[in-house]
Write a structure and sequence with these properties.
Chain lengths: 295, 323
């Protein structure tokens, strides 16, 4: 049992792990998008750029301040969230009454701006980031080699996703949040500060993107363009999942990452497009997405 | 409507005379290609209310199709242009049929994702030359006119642009255009009036794709190349900016927007150098490398404070003045 359809089991499992790692990023990012979309009705095109910002903050923390990975894993998402608060107060707040396409366009402009700024400072070539000492190396499981850092990325992402799911679906705070997406006026009448809730929700959503960015730093090179191709795939994930449910975006993200990983083994040329092909198929069969509700 | 015709003819004459006045023909041809692209895009967003975020797919696909038919298959120029346009129309039919099943933000995301899928196809397909693109596309000749002469090509491009612009004008002022506007303003009402809304949307999508393709095919002749840049999502964003900055849902708006964006892309560096000379601050010299920053800023300003765009704002003021 070392071969599987002519592919060595070791290679297959390696790709499965890679797929899971990518899937974790998809899940965390599409989760953030889903939360923001739920309450602000805005597709946050800047999500990819904020993911990049998170990665850069981690890198800058190490480079200029000597702050290690663990500190930045906490500080960088907070920094991105603070930036998100500024964005929401300055710009997004004024767009809620308009056609929601303007939100998409504004965040698109922000993306160009952010990417442009980092590009003009750091150029397009990536900056390396060392794997933290505690997570270096890997285990030999006998049938495959398991790099500890990649395993950590998957575990940390799943924990964060599930915690977010728990807060939104099972706590009183989450219940208020869901109520506010349905009827903000009524929730306001209960004495809840809905505008503040919206601001903090946006901050939390983009904080998740920043968190994913820090997780990615030791795996990918930190580069201004790291978010721009990823975000399109995440949009496809969102279309496939349907954006209706929190759990849906987590499962779709992970699942598509794994499928992408397998495609890399069996049909490498298609690995970039397989997510989009799946999107087309899903759209033909279920226009509202796998977990979406038709409104 | 009657008032506009003399203005239009006067503008046409001026553009026709520009090369004689010393303007660089390639630059103006570039502007015209993008202007046609933006006008085609505006037919969809400005008049039908559908934000496609994947229009670069049509520009790029038509450029590759034209390049392939001219450079590899050795077709005559006219056939190549038509082939590029038809390819974009066929692609528009497929993409449109898939994307109009959802509306609003979802529509935008689906078109974006489909365009990205096509981008990877162009990146990897054996005939597109990957990152380098198709080079050395022969311009050939049309009706005995040798197009390798920039001036001959200039008038062909002007004719193509005028044809496209007038076609859009005709569409917008026809009953078809009225139905599109009705769909934009109130889709449920258009449905209840008995219009097959999906069919009209698809028709508008295919028309817009075909004209975008015509722009891309023409562009491949102008630059004798088809490159991956034309198919990136950044290009899809740029055409949105052109339309937004000029004025959504106005006929002249996208043209003005295209002029501004192409000027920005080509001249910001020079302007930066000039500013640096005047002010003595060398920081302005780096402006050329930061075109995306400038474009991003304009995007934000347009969305926050200037949603009517230049032509839209002018029209609004004139109308208020008249009233």
């Amino acid at each position: 049992m070392t071969d599987f359809f002519g592919i060595p089991l070791q290679a297959l499992l390696g790709q499965l792990l890679l797929g899971l790692v990518n899937g974790s990023f998809y899940a965390v990012l599409s989760l953030g998008l889903a939360i923001i979309f739920g309450l602000l009705n805005i597709i946050n095109f800047a999500h990819g750029a904020l993911y990049m910002l998170g990665a850069f903050l981690a890198w800058m923390g190490l480079q200029y301040l000597g702050l290690n990975y663990w500190t930045m894993l906490l500080l960088a998402p907070l920094g991105v969230a603070l930036f998100g608060i500024v964005l929401e107060r300055l710009f997004l707040r004024h767009l809620y009454r308009l056609d929601h396409l303007y939100g998409l366009l504004l965040t698109f402009g922000l993306t160009l701006l952010l990417e442009g700024v980092f590009r003009s400072i750091y150029g397009v070539s990536g900056q390396p980031y060392p794997t933290p000492a505690a997570l270096q190396g890997g285990y030999n499981l006998g049938f495959m080699f398991l790099p500890i850092y990649r395993a950590w990325v998957v575990v940390a992402s799943i924990i964060v996703c599930l915690a977010t799911w728990f807060i939104i679906e099972k706590t009183r705070l989450g219940a208020l949040l869901r109520a506010a997406t349905e009827n903000p006026k009524l929730v306001e009448a209960f004495g809840v500060n809905v505008p503040l809730m919206i601001t903090l929700t946006y901050a939390f959503g983009v904080g998740l993107a920043g968190f994913a960015g820090v997780l990615a730093t030791p795996i990918l090179q930190v580069s201004p363009l790291m978010g721009s191709n990823l975000i399109i795939v995440v949009f496809a994930v969102v279309v496939i999942g349907g954006m209706g449910s929190i759990l849906g975006s987590i499962l779709t993200g992970l699942g598509l990452g794994v499928i992408e990983g397998f495609t890399k083994v069996f049909w490498p040329e298609a690995s970039n497009t397989v997510v989009f092909i799946i999107m087309v198929i899903v759209l033909l069969l279920r226009p509202a997405g796998l977990f979406g509700k038709v409104k | 409507m009657k008032r506009e015709i003399p203005v239009f003819i006067a503008l046409l004459l001026i553009v026709a005379l520009l090369p004689a006045l010393g303007a660089y023909p390639i630059f103006i041809m570039k502007v015209m290609c993008y202007a046609l692209f933006a006008c085609a895009f505006n037919l969809l967003l400005g008049y039908t209310g559908l934000l496609s975020f994947g229009h670069a797919a049509f520009l790029g696909a038509a450029a590759y199709a034209t390049g392939q038919s001219l450079a590899v298959w050795g077709w005559p120029t006219l056939a190549g242009l038509l082939f590029g346009t038809a390819s974009a129309a066929a692609l528009g039919l497929v993409m449109g049929a898939l994307s109009i099943r959802r509306s609003g933000i979802y529509f935008a995301m689906i078109t974006l994702a489909l365009a990205q899928m096509l981008f990877f196809f162009f990146l990897q397909a054996p005939f597109t030359g990957g990152e380098d693109g198709l080079q050395g596309i022969p311009r050939g000749s049309i009706l005995g006119l040798d197009l390798s002469d920039d001036l001959n090509l200039y008038y062909l491009v002007l004719a193509i642009f005028t044809f496209g612009f007038l076609l859009i004008w005709r569409c917008v002022h026809s009953p078809f255009g009225q139905v599109l506007k009705a769909i934009r303003e109130n889709e449920p009402r258009a449905i209840s009036l008995g219009y097959d809304v999906d069919r009209f949307k698809l028709l508008a999508f295919v028309l817009s794709a075909a004209l975008s393709g015509l722009a891309g095919a023409t562009k491949s002749l102008v630059f004798v190349s088809a490159t991956l840049t034309d198919a990136t999502w950044q290009m899809s964003g740029l055409v949105i900016l052109m339309t937004l900055i000029g004025g959504l849902g106005t006929l002249a708006g996208p043209v003005v927007g295209a002029i501004i964006v192409v000027l920005l892309e080509n001249k910001v560096g020079e302007w930066g150098a000039m500013l640096a000379q005047w002010t003595g601050w060398n920081g302005f010299r780096t402006l050329g490398e930061s075109v995306t920053i400038v474009i991003g800023l304009i995007f934000i300003v347009c969305v926050m404070a200037f949603r009517r765009g230049i032509v839209g704002e002018l029209a609004f003021r004139l109308r208020r003045h008249d009233a």
